[in-house]
Amino acid sequence: MLLKTNRWKIIGLIFASLLLLLLMCGSIIYGYTDTTWKMAWDAFQFNNGSNEHLVITTVRLPRALIAAAVGFSVAIAGVLMQTLTKNPLASPDIFGVNAGAGFAVVIGITMFSMGNLQAITWVAFLGASIAAIGVYALGTAGREGLTPIKLTLAGAAMAAMFSSFTQGFLVTDEAALEQVLFWLAGSVQGRKLEILLSVLPYLIVGWLGAMVISPKMNVLSMGEDVAKGLGLRTGLLKVCIAIVVILLAGGSVAIAGPIGFIGIVIPHVARAIVGIDHRWLIPFSGLLGGCLLLIADILARYIIMPQEVPVGVMTAIIGTPFFIYIARKGFNAK
């Protein structure tokens, strides 16, 4: 643990917040259209309607806000899932929650022509819920009950199933393929501020819910028998965790598509910095998750300029080596 005292953790939290703001500014400034910090300032103070000012205010500002919100949400969902399952590989993408939400959104958009943002959001929540329930049911089947390895296998199976359903559906509908392919890769490009505002209330409920249950998460991490002995209602807590994860993961997929690996990487990085106290771990993970997605999005603009790489591809490039390291290290969740 890098930061051992509460004083240093507060300083670290402030530093992470400032870093997030700096990266959001960088996301607004840097890209294919050549802009400067002065142009950005003028765009918000004295917008003259120029192409540069329009790019800054209508394209890059929503993009920066969406990347920060999605990264924040997915990282917190990863923390909750890893603690709940005692599995260091747990995250919304590995356990099929993102794939379930993505499949539901694809069906809603292509088969039912859903254009209403609220409807798409609720469809994403429904898909995420079905996937989460399916993984839990598969993971608890058998005499041994719930184990990290069974959960991982169940999550991989659920992710593969929903991904196969999605691909099979799109193969039969070329128009639908063109409509959702870039979204399925995970991207914050071209997203409007309206879609963030429509989902933001659910994300805020998820963020606040995660902080409210954070002290109880510390008790649960000591083991279910110990937690029950201390009077914790573990069943109710697990339901609350599931609801928060569905809100955060489903909302993120509705905004930006299924973006992977942040929910795996960031909780481990945050634990190395502040330890396993969820009162600090959750906000640190959220801030670092937002920072990582912003960094990935900025890099995605320059890899094959003037084209852009979907940010989901960039997070996979960053997260895959870390995933392999954790998998080789074993299932000794902290």
UniProtKB/TrEMBL annotation:
It is found in: Cell membrane. Pfam families: FecCD. The chain crosses the membrane at residues 12-32, 64-82, 94-113, 119-139, 151-172, 192-210, 281-303, 309-327. Keywords: Cell membrane, Membrane, Transmembrane, Transmembrane helix, Transport. It is a multi-pass membrane protein. GO terms for cellular component: plasma membrane. InterPro entries: ABC_BtuC-like, ABC_transptr_permease_BtuC. Coiled coil: none annotated. This is Iron ABC transporter permease. It comes from Ureibacillus endophyticus.
